[in-house]
Design goal:
The chain is about 90% helix and about 0% strand. It contains 4 helices and no strands.
Length: about 200
C-alpha cells in the first residue's frame, strides 16, 4: 500500500520537476540570448568605430602632406592627431579582441572575468582619450589666436565640434557601453545563480 502511494506521489511530483527544468532551460536560453545581443551590438560598434578611425587616419596623413608650410602650431596639431588616431586604432583592435574572446558557451565565471577586464580597460582608455583631446585642442586654439585671427564662425565651428564630440562620447558611454555591459553582467550573474541553485539540489 505504501509503495502504491509513493508511486502516485511520484507521478504527481515528476511532471512538476520536468516543468521546472523546462522553465529553467527557457530562462537560461533567454539570458544567454540577451547577453549575446548586447555583446554583438558592442562588437559591431567596435568594427564601425575602427573603420571610421582608419578613414580618419588617411585624412590626417593627407592633411600633413597637403599643408607642409602651415605654422608650427598647426603642424604640431596635425602630427599629434595622427599619433592620437594611430593609438585609437591600436586600442580599438585590442578592445575588439577582448570582446571576441567572450564565449557564452564556456564558463560563466570566466566570461565574468573577461567582462570585468574589458570594463577596466574601457575606463582607462576613456580617460586617456579625454585627456588627449584636451591636449590636441591647445595647438588649434593657439593657432587661431596668434596666426589666423579667427573670425566668429571659426570659433563657433571649433566649439561646436567639441560639443558634438562631447555628446557623442556621452552617448557611446551611456547607450553603447554602460547599458550593454550592465545587461551582460546582470545576465551572467543570474546564470551563475541558476547554476549554483542546480548544484545545491544535487
Amino acid at each position: 500500500m505504501e509503495l502504491e502511494e509513493l508511486k502516485k506521489a511520484w507521478n504527481t511530483f515528476d511532471p512538476q520537476l520536468q516543468q521546472q527544468d523546462m522553465l529553467k532551460a527557457i530562462l537560461k536560453d533567454s539570458l544567454v540570448n540577451k547577453s549575446d545581443k548586447g555583446l554583438s551590438r558592442m562588437i559591431n560598434y567596435g568594427y564601425f568605430g575602427l573603420t571610421i578611425m582608419v578613414l580618419g587616419l588617411f585624412v590626417c596623413i593627407w592633411a600633413v602632406f597637403q599643408f607642409p608650410d602651415r605654422p608650427l602650431t598647426i603642424r604640431i596639431g596635425l602630427y599629434m592627431t595622427v599619433i592620437f588616431v594611430l593609438y585609437g586604432i591600436i586600442q580599438g583592435v585590442i578592445g575588439l579582441s577582448k570582446l571576441l574572446k567572450i564565449d557564452f558557451s564556456s564558463s560563466i565565471k570566466e566570461n565574468m572575468q573577461k567582462i570585468s577586464s574589458y570594463r577596466v580597460w574601457y575606463h582607462k582608455q576613456l580617460i586617456i582619450i579625454l585627456v588627449s583631446v584636451s591636449i590636441l585642442v591647445i595647438p588649434v586654439i593657439i593657432y587661431l589666436f596668434t596666426f589666423e585671427k579667427a573670425q566668429a564662425w571659426q570659433w563657433f565651428f571649433l566649439f561646436g565640434a567639441l560639443g558634438v564630440g562631447a555628446v557623442g562620447t556621452w552617448w557611446e558611454y551611456k547607450q553603447m557601453y554602460q547599458k550593454n555591459i550592465q545587461s551582460i553582467q546582470k545576465s551572467l550573474e543570474e546564470l551563475e545563480e541558476l547554476k549554483e541553485l542546480d548544484m545545491s539540489k544535487t
